[in-house]
Amino acid sequence: MRPPAPLTGVVPPLCTPLTPDGRVDTRSLAALAARLAGAGASGLFVLGSSGEAAFLTDAQRRTVVETVVEAAGGRLPVLAGAIDMTTPRVLEQARQARSLGADAVVATAPFYTRTHPAEIAGHFRRVRDGAGLPLFAYDIPMAVHTKLPLDTVLTLARDGVLAGLKDSSGEDGALRRLLVRVRAQAPDFSVLTGSELTVDGALLAGAHGVVPGLGNVDPHGYVRLYEHATAGRWREAAAEQDRLAALFSLTDAGDAAVMGRNSSALGAFKAALHLLGVIDCPATAPPQLPLDEAAVGTVRRCLEEAGLL
What is the pTM of this model? Predict the structure, then answer.
């Protein structure tokens, strides 16, 4: 099903479960998709940062989209990341996603090469025309080293090139300014925050929903938070946000002296899903390092304190 305009609610960015030998674990991935759908997700986003898209081969990416589209069964939209360096490569990913039944595509600005805002706009226009699906921009300057310009996003929204934006910039002021102008200029454009820790504030400012990596672990918590916020129960929303912020500390479980932040966070999400019995193996894709026994113990304590175990 095509995503509504604007897309609202909780759209978890699915982790990609792997087998011990590095293959996509389709059984666990389908189980994860079913769990998120059952918790009340409004859509499923595959092949984003939480899905380790940058670490997967094209064949693995294909398997991920096929598996989740089948698991969703047309009951909710599947947004597929087409994350790659340049327009031709993104177009290949986007066209593959369409052929596999994805309902929308998510793409960043080009990266590795330096690009001008006019080139970024041309990139999104070509991807939208070539993919033939609704296109969501993914603003993640930490990874692509380009912050999407406000005026570029608004122009593409008004022109119908972009259906929405996933904001993972971490710049709350820029997000607020975007939301003010979207209300006036592009009311069907969807703005989704990618920050797990400030969802209540983003929704109060007018964001349409959230794409929380931690939503893999506690989707019901994010659905409750969204429902409280949209009903105007801001005290309850803040309390749920506080609980989720405490749970987010599991991403610090890894030893920073021997592994990167990405290994710690994604390793913690997968360790949590393994402890919860959702996925069969907590492995992450190389060269990321696995959590050690002590770190997994920390993840377990976080789940217990959050009332999930």
Answer: 0.97
